[in-house]
Write the structure tokens for this entry.
Amino acid sequence: MSAAASTATSPLASWDRDPVLTVEHLTMRFGGLVAVSDLSFNVGRGDITALIGPNGAGKTTVFNCCTGFYKPTEGRIVMRHGPGQQKEAVDAVTASGLRYRAANDGSVYLLERMPDFEISEKAKVARTFQNIRLFGGMTVLENLLVAQHNVLMVASGYTIGGIFGLPTYRKAQAKAVEKAVYWLEHVNLIDRADDPAGDLPYGDQRRLEIARAMCTDPMLLCLDEPAAGLNPRESAQLNELLQFIRNSGTSVLLIEHDMGVVMEISDHIVVLDYGVKISDGDADFVKSDPKVIAAYLGVDDEAEIDIPEVRQEVGAVIEKAGKKGAGTSLHLPEAEKGGKG
Amino acid sequence: MAAPTVTAPSRQDTNSFAASVKDAAIAGALTGVLGFFFLALRTEIAPGGLEVSTRWGVWIVAILIVFAGRLLLNLFVFKTDKPVTRYFSTGKSSASPRLPWLGRALGIFLFLVATVLPFLIIALFPAQQRQFIDLAILIMTYVMLGWGLNIVVGLAGLLDLGYVAFYAVGAYSFALLSTHFEFIGFWTALPLAGMLAAFWGLILGFPVLRLRGDYLAIVTLAFGEIIRIVLLNWYDFTGGPNGISGIPKPTFLGMDFSRGDDGVAAFLGIEYSTIHRFIYLYYIIFLLAIITNLVTMRLRKLPVGRAWEALREDEIACRSLGINTTNTKLTAFAIGAMFGGFAGSFFATRQGFISPESFTFLESAIILAIVVLGGLGSQIGVVIASVVMIGGIELLRNIGFLSQIFGPDFDPVQYRMLIFGLAMVGIMVWKPRGLVTTREPTAVLKEKKRIGADMVAQGEGH
């Protein structure tokens, strides 16, 4: 089922050859409710990967698992800083019981074992939130400085050097402001740097949250519905910004409902429905996949019977979920609420 | 389209006085009706039944008071475009400061006054110098405690109802160390007391890390009580309710403030006076408070201080940015507790005697009230609130003229908590976010804009 698209063109798709993030057999249960069931996919290095699906498909749950806000019930999530699959290194770290292995040639991080703040600090995975979470009472500039906390903390000698005003800290602070200014210029907020973040209009807050996440120097940026509530012009600006981020060396994983954004900029699309992956490939492949069309547009009973692939697939999924003791709620509408996380 | 909305207030303006008088007259008439049976008529038991007497004077005075009061309220508050209460109310605009220089100017002024305060008092009130310097010491102690608690409550947004526990730990640390070990004086015990209090801050910090809101407040409250009750019951170690006495006074470069030849007065070649020791105590607490303030101001501009404020704004966002919220909360508790410990050991040396009675919940409540009243996170607000609250309570002891109005039995001190409560209610109605409601940004790119309180989150437990 994985990499159905890639089989058509080459033996391995680019995201399978050089994945920055690998999600393997991820299952997340909330009591009896299975929000995500045995999900596996890769996020390619230097790609923009979109995670799409109808409401309640479990996309945000996947995000929360990848960024440490939930502990997955089962599965492995691997973040790699070095190139390639690094199979031996990943298996070695998994067997060792450690959370990560940092090395010059390629660090490997098992995100399901790491607490949330460490995922951002060490594994370099940054995220934004569906409902924007800015520090509203702090200025735009301060928001971006808070994001550079760990770098500044070291420079301030864990506060002790900073209290005595050592020059290393002052230099680091100037550098941090420089970086903040760099990102403010890229998100067009430089004129509002000294305004409280809570005062900004909605679209600006979305861009500021992305800038704040970028100030943590991430290898992978996870965006939860970045285009929600944006007008078409702002959406176009967002596309440009995301492409700029990708070109500057950060891989992007995004959840999005705006198909204009998704189809235009994504290199790779993963489609979820009821916590199960139903399609995985590039934009053209996903667009024409009958299962995706069925999930998004809905099919009546006759039509469903007309597409044997769908029937087969759905049957297999139900069977699989049943075997796992997932309960029968998998395909009931209640699943939508829990899946949203 | 805008024309009617513009003309409406001006039409109202021309009639506002007449309307005010009419409204006040209605209120007066209502008082007359309602008060007729209560004020104007009075029944007294007389031989052979009740006798009705009249008190027209009282009735008319009541009507006039209501009329005048209502008229004044109408003219200045209810029926005017520029109510006087606008000066008290919180501004709607978030980033447009009224009088931005005021805070800084006031801070410098208060600092200058505080540096020469003992001599000012000696010059102005030679008869009451000891009493007033003592009051200044007390106020300054609360300023320091307020600044210490401000780190936990104002910056990190963690509501701490048991702050007095650290004050107690500091006081008992110094008292026990100095009574058990001859060589430990105030200046050696001070850092030890601070460290011990910080250690207790960490111990309190651990269990409350996962708690939010009301639960956090309850656990900190319980912690404060635990410390007090342990001090009360651990008779062998702390002396229980008898407390500890004979705590040494602070020395100046190893010299006592005594009459003898090795005293400070003899060393400086001035005539001995008991007031010297009070002046010295004042400068000790002044120095400690200033250190607290400077360190806090510095910390705010360091990553740890920004992390505290970010934690107050949004803990989940903090975690997504790689901030270890556990450590951040613990540092806030520990540093806040450390300053509480310093203040505690000063308290012990000033009193010379401590007992668990000095560390009741009321103390915590007063310190928290100072912080809340001053405005969460505001340093100058804490100073004003301390002067008003502590100074205000003491001032009530000196109001002689009130007993001329209310009779010789009237003791204003008895009413101090009532007045205090009323003042708190009044301030919370008009300035719900405290006296100083703006937040100063810690980093500025081009132009410093103060941030209105409506933007700033209050953190956990508020």
Q: What stands out?
A: Residues 1-9, 325-341 of chain A have pLDDT under 50 and may be disordered. Chain A has two domains: 6-124+221-230+251-340, 134-217. The radius of gyration of chain A is 21 Å.
